[in-house]
Design brief:
heterodimer; A: 490 residues; two-stranded antiparallel sheet; B: 498 residues; mainly alpha
Chain lengths: 490, 498
């Protein structure tokens, strides 16, 4: 507990302090370094909590410290750190740098609290603390029309999703008389079916679905990713998206252990998740294939990856309803959580590579990637490895989590999800390899070397090392994901 | 004891990085280094081959005891999800490992004159490719197998796409899309096998004979599609002519020679080995696929106007023999057909390899491999012309080459299963027909006056002659392959019939 508090204090202090540094007339970059330091401290604290914390709840059970929370906190804070580092190089007017970092840290703080939330109200407060700064960050390039458009679109849909979540919370409170998630679960265990509560669950899925970017709540994703400053788009794709997943796990999957949505065997949570998973991955992949811009391609690929993650949710809900296939459900949730970690690494690497191309070459259409291997070899290599990992090719990390996810449904009545997911994976290689072909086989407009800044190179090296290293030696990571997944089973 | 198999497996993969660096530093030193690695690998492969041959008669019949050499470590173990690093070698894999190591040496030597740009990446990828293929043949854990199975296609994509012919990008993309789709479908079968037994496992020796017959059918079909694309079988072959004709000659040697054997190996080890009852039920269908593939390959080869395309389709026909022989044994219970299939994979590596390498030298010497533009190779480029005649005779499966033994065994095995399989005898006849026509037309015809071309160097011709050594040895001493593979095949067929 004291570790998490320390992380919260570190982030809050830096978030509040970084505008003050400007007021105090310090160098503008001081705020960046302070923020990076605060994030490093926060990550260290969460890591310490993972090692020594144990499972406890505090603040009147508003927050709970468990392995699941540690896993998500580590992911979102690490991504925030990477974004903070590369933002030093991006081209925002440096006058606004302190406020940029302040917003980034507030959002990270929201995600940290969200990871450990055990109460619906705490969850909502953390959700808003995470979301509100990102609306501003999306429009941070205030002179660019697309950035303004992205911010407006994102803010409106984000506000809508917040409203939906709040409505779902009030319905839940109306039915159960508590906002404590464990209390809600205990209460509903004895109640077989309540239409109002079922509506509340669906509204939760919709509200969280916006952030998770699952179809059909994904419309804002490509525009926001494209319009937002590229480093911020990385944050959306790899961190706030994960926050949607942790909220869904904390709320919807917890309820799924006791409550089956409808009194028949068709309209069940398992089927809802299974259909959402297949629709999301299929639409994401098909749309990605037709894109002409790298950011949009990554946005749709990110949508498709959300579909894979949902496969674990589906088998979990199925197993909880029927009492069968517990082994599959453990595999599936381990796979989901592991894929969330992997996705942050793979997508983070891909987005940061695209960010660097955009910063250095001022373009994000796919044609600029022709012959990139000669111009920016490290960036091209990072992008290629991350695409192979996203495609699920061994020996990279994405293979293992996809393996666990697909294994978990292969011998169940949800086997069709595995077949759809396999075909989707094969299909997705179409556009992943198309880009690799452009970078390595095609001739570019120029073969002149382009500078790759040191900060980017370090982060690329770390991410590529993680993708290959986890791919070869996944033991510790699968064990971590398994420990987090096990906490869901009661 | 020394981990011989792991050394065999990781030597080329580990050497690919230093090879790149040394080639960047000094080209000739790097070439020697690459060749030294390939030769060292060959020595280890020969030792393993010899070890299997010397010990096969004393081996057990099930589990790891059936493998002459095996190494096992825990790789991933979380709760009850486990993946082992498990490699082993028996009479089925040892000839293919040897063929891979030998062909890689030939390909490295052959690349010296045929590859003239970006050498560091090229040789590094060749070594990576060799290690991955050997990994496929040695892996006895399905996930480890799948690791190497997929790893094979990454270097191949770049080898075709960067160093290939005019349509190389198209060929590389098509190759990638087909092969990856196949491998994803294969993964379905592997996952079903894992979940099909209790307690779950990915280890092939522990899975064999334990998967309930009722759930074998769909995984069998999925695995056959996955392996069939690589082999390839009709109608999953359409990537192959592009890849084989666009790849640079030494890469085509490896593609046709050993990459296709991966498919045949997978069919025997996994499709038949893990799903034997279903394989027996559907054996007639797969035998039909094999026969259709042979005739299709041979028939399209007749129409080929280009030497490389003719060789590519001849190679498809050769792979039809592997499918026919394997499933003929499953249907009949006689080991002859599958033994023939294993020998066919071994000899096909060298027949196809020599053909594609020669096509590369002819392309280099004459600037074309269009049959209608080639006249009098005998006098224009006498060394390549003469060797081409030998290579064609080997591809026709005539003595003194081991391909004769392999195809006879497959056809006899096929007749054991059903008399209709005797039609397969027509395939070598068709192949002989168009090969002889091509030789008459291109090699023995009078040369166009003033025609000139660059012939092979004496060293290259001598190295190419070495392709025929294993082929001739296999005519007289086919026991080297057939002996160690007999207990493996017998063990597989026992699984079918219980």
């Amino acid at each position: 507990m004291e570790f998490i508090l320390a992380a919260v204090v570190a982030l809050s202090a830096a978030a509040l302090g970084s505008p003050l540094l400007q007021a105090a007339g310090r160098r503008l970059k001081a705020s960046a370094y302070a923020s990076i330091a605060a994030l490093v401290v926060a990550i260290a604290m969460v890591a310490a909590n993972t090692a020594y914390g144990g499972s406890v709840s505090y603040f009147g059970r508003l927050l709970v410290s468990d392995v699941l929370g540690d896993l998500f906190a580590l992911v979102v804070l690490s991504v925030s750190l990477a974004v903070a580092v590369v933002s030093v190089y991006s081209s925002h007017s440096s006058q606004n740098m302190p406020s940029y970092y302040s917003l980034l840290l507030f959002s990270a703080l929201g995600m940290l609290l969200l990871s450990y939330s055990a109460d619906l109200l705490m969850l909502f407060v953390a959700w808003e603390l995470m979301s509100l700064p990102t609306y501003v960050l999306a429009g941070f390039d205030k002179k660019r029309a697309e950035s303004n458009e992205a911010a407006a679109k994102y803010a409106i849909l984000g506000a809508l999703s917040s409203a939906i979540i709040l409505y779902a919370i009030s319905l839940t409170y109306g039915v159960t008389g508590t906002t404590q998630i464990s209390g809600v679960v205990a209460k509903m265990a004895s109640e077989p079916f309540n239409p109002l509560f079922s509506v509340a669950i669906l509204l939760f899925i919709v509200g969280f679905g916006f952030k998770m970017s699952i179809v059909p709540f994904h419309m804002w994703v490509p525009d926001a990713y494209e319009g937002a400053p590229p480093a911020v788009a990385t944050l959306f794709a790899t961190a706030t998206k994960k926050a949607g997943f942790v909220a869904a796990i904390r709320v919807v999957l917890a309820i799924a252990t006791v409550y089956a949505l409808a009194p028949n065997s068709v309209f069940t949570l398992a089927n809802v998740f299974a259909v959402l998973a297949v629709v999301t991955m299929t639409l994401g992949n098909v749309a990605a294939l037709t894109q002409k811009s790298m950011t949009r391609l990554l946005a749709y690929s990110s949508i498709a990856q959300a579909g894979y993650i949902l496969v674990g949710f589906a088998i979990f809900a199925y197993s909880q309803q029927t009492g069968l296939y517990t082994y599959n459900a453990v595999l599936g949730m381990t796979g989901s959580l592991f894929h969330i970690v992997n996705h942050a690494i793979m997508k983070g690497a891909a987005f940061l590579a695209a960010t660097l191309v955009l910063i250095q070459l001022k373009r994000s259409d796919l044609d600029i990637y022709n012959g990139l291997a000669k111009r920016m070899p490290i960036t091209a290599f990072t992008l290629a490895i991350s695409f192979l990992a996203l495609g699920g090719i061994p020996p990279l990390n994405g293979f293992w989590s996809k393996l666990l996810l697909f294994l978990s449904v292969i011998n169940t009545p949800l086997a069709w999800v595995a077949v759809a997911a396999i075909l989707n994976s094969a299909f997705s290689l179409g556009y992943y390899f198309w880009v690799i072909k452009r970078m390595y086989l095609d001739q570019g407009e120029s073969t002149e070397r382009v500078n790759e800044p040191f900060g980017f190179v370090v982060i690329f090296a770390v991410l590529v090392g993680l993708m290959i290293g986890i791919g070869l030696f996944p033991q510790q990571f699968i064990a971590f994901a398994h420990a987090a997944a096990s906490s869901l089973f009661t | 004891m020394m981990p011989v198999l792991s050394i065999l497996l990781f030597l080329p993969i580990a050497a690919s990085v230093p090879a790149y660096l040394i080639l960047r530093w000094r080209k000739s030193a790097g070439l020697w280094f690459t060749l030294a690695v390939a030769l060292a690998e060959l020595v280890i492969a020969l030792y393993v081959f010899y070890f299997v041959y010397a010990n096969f008669s004393g081996l057990g019949h099930s589990g790891l005891g059936a493998y002459a050499l095996a190494e096992q470590y825990s790789w991933v173990s979380v709760a009850s999800f486990g993946v082992n690093y498990l490699v082993g070698v028996d009479g089925l894999s040892s000839p293919l490992v040897l063929a891979t190591a030998l062909l890689t040496v030939f390909a490295v030597i052959g690349s010296r004159r045929l590859i003239d740009r970006s050498e560091p990446a090229y040789y590094s990828l060749i070594l990576l490719f060799e290690g991955a293929i050997i990994g496929v043949f040695l892996s006895l854990n399905l996930i480890l197998f799948y690791f190497f199975w997929d790893l094979v296609m990454i270097p191949m994509f770049f080898l075709i796409g960067i160093w290939g012919g005019d349509r190389r990008k198209y060929a590389a993309m098509k190759f990638m899309i087909f092969i990856f789709t196949g491998s994803m479908i294969l993964l379905l079968a592997l996952m079903a096998a894992y979940m099909g037994v209790s307690p779950t496992t990915f280890d092939i020796p522990s899975l064999a004979g334990r998967i309930p017959a009722s759930i074998q059918y769909l995984p069998l079909l999925a695995s056959f599609i996955g392996f069939g694309i690589k082999l390839p079988v009709f109608p999953l072959h359409s990537w192959l002519p592009d890849a084989y004709t666009q790849a640079p000659a030494p890469v085509a040697v490896l593609l046709a020679g050993v990459q296709s054997a991966m498919g045949g190996y997978g069919i025997i080890r996994i499709s038949i080995g893990l799903f034997p009852q279903a394989a027996e039920q559907w054996a007639w269908a797969f035998m039909t696929v094999g026969i259709v593939t042979m005739f299709y390959g041979a028939a399209v080869a007749i129409l080929s106007k280009n030497l490389r395309s003719m060789f590519a389709y001849t190679s498809i026909a050769g792979m039809g023999f592997v499918v026919l022989g394997s499933f003929a044994s499953v249907a009949s219970g006689s080991i002859i057909g599958m033994q023939g299939a294993i020998l066919e994979m071994f000899v096909h590596a060298f027949t196809a390899g020599s053909l594609f390498m020669l096509a590369g030298y002819i392309q280099k010497g004459l600037g074309t491999t269009d049959i209608s533009l080639m006249n009098g190779l005998r006098s224009v480029i006498p060394r390549a012309g003469t060797l081409l005649v030998f290579a064609c005779v080997a591809a026709m499966a005539l003595p003194p080459f081991g391909s004769f033994v392999a195809e006879v065994l497959v056809i006899v095995g096929g007749i054991h299963a059903t008399p209709y399989a005797a039609v397969a005898i027509l395939v070598p006849v068709i192949i002989g027909g168009y090969m002889l026509w091509m030789i008459k037309r291109a090699v023995l015809s009078p040369p166009t006056p003033g025609a000139a071309g660059g012939d092979m160097h004496g060293v290259d011709a001598a190295v190419l002659g070495l392709y025929f050594v294993p082929l001739i040895i296999m005519l007289f001493f086919s026991i080297l392959v057939l002996g160690p593979s007999a207990p493996v095949v017998q063990h597989l067929l026992q699984l079918v019939s219980h």
